[in-house]
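Z., the sequence and structure:
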Amino acid sequence: MAYLVRRRDTRLMRVLLLPTVIAMTVRCTFRYQWKDLRFKWFEWDRGLVGLVVIAKSIDFALVREGRFKVGEKELPAISDPEQNTTQRRRTTPGKEEPLADREDCGIVGNFLPRALYDALEVGLAMRGVGWDFGQSLYIPSGERPSERDAFMRATLWRFARNMLYIDIWETIEKLTPGVSSTGGTIFLSQLPFFQRYACSTFLHLGHGLFIATGVSCVYDIFSLIGALFCGSKPDDWPPIAGDVWAAQSLHEFWSKGWHQSLRYIFLTYGGFPGQWLAGNVGMVFGTFLASALFHEIGIATTGVAMDRRVFVFFLLQAVGITMERGFGMLTGRRVSGILGFAWAVLFVLGFGQMCTDSWFNRGIAGALAVPESLSIGRQIILPTLRGLAHLYTPVS
C-alpha cells in the first residue's frame, strides 16, 4: 500500500487492497497475546502500532493522486524503470537535474530497491514533515545543531537523559503502594484528603512526562538512524514537541506543546469524518474521540477491558477547546496569559487524573519498561538510598 501511494494511477488498486490489509492487520494484532503481564507496555505498543498501520492504509487508499513530497509535481508510474534510490530526483521525473541537487538517501539507499525505499519512506512518515499531508503541521521551535556530528551527539545525550528519567520514574511508580502488573491506583485512600490528591497529582504529572519522554526516545532512535544511514539532514528532524509549560490555553497545549506524532492518525480516524459531519466543532470532537478509541483499543490487546473514564477525559478536552473558541467569538480575544495557563492545567492535570488512574487500575504502572537487570534506578540508586537511610536511622 505504501509503495502504491508513491506511484501514479494506482488509486483503484489501493482501494481494492484496503480490506485485505485491514483484515490481516487486525488478525496479526489482536489474534495473539503475550500472556506475561509484565510486558503490558509492549503489548499496548503493539496494539497501537496495528492501529497506526490501519489508519495509514486508509489514508493511502483514499488519497486520490497519491502522496507527494513538498516540491514534487508528479509521481513515477509502476512501469517506470526502478533506478537506484540515490539517482532519484526531488522534482518532476524526466527532467535533467544537477547531481548535487539529487536526493541523498545515504547508505540504505545504496542497496535498497527503489520500490522498498519509497514504501518505507512514506510509511514511516508520521508527522508529515516534508510531505503534502504535513504542510499545516506546527513545527516547534528549538535550537538544534545543524552540523550532522553535533546533531548526533546532542541527540544521543537527549536520548540518554530521557532513558534515565524513564528508568527512575518506573522505579518510583513501582514503589507506590498497591501498584502491580494486575492493578493499582494513584489515589491512596490511606492518606488524608490533601496529601492524597497531592500524591495523585505528582503521579499523574510524572506519568505524563514518562509518556512524553518515551515518545521522544523513539523519535531520537529514528532520527539517529536517519542521519547515520539514510542521508537525512538535521533539519529533517525538528523537535518532536514544544514547551508544554509555555502553553497559555488548552488548544495551545494540544496543538503546540504536546507531541504531534499521532496527529494525522487521529485526523484520519475521527477528525476528517467529524469535520464532514459537523464542521470545525465536529473535527475537534472527532479527533479527541479518535484519540480515546486509539488508546483504549490499543490497550485491549493486553487482555483488559476498556474504561469509560478515558473517553470522558479526551472528550472533555474537546469541550474545553470548544469553550475557548466560544470565548474568542464572544469577546474578540483569545484565551491566554496566566488564566489561560490555569485553564489548561485544570483540564490536563486535573481531569487527566481519571485517565492515569484508569491505566494504573489495569496494571500499566506495574508493567516492565526497563529490564530490572539494566535499571540504574533499581540496581544502583534505590539500593544506595536505602543504605543511606539505614545508615542514618537513629538506633533506639
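Residues 148-373 form one domain. The two ends are 72 Å apart (CA to CA).

Let me know what you think.
H.
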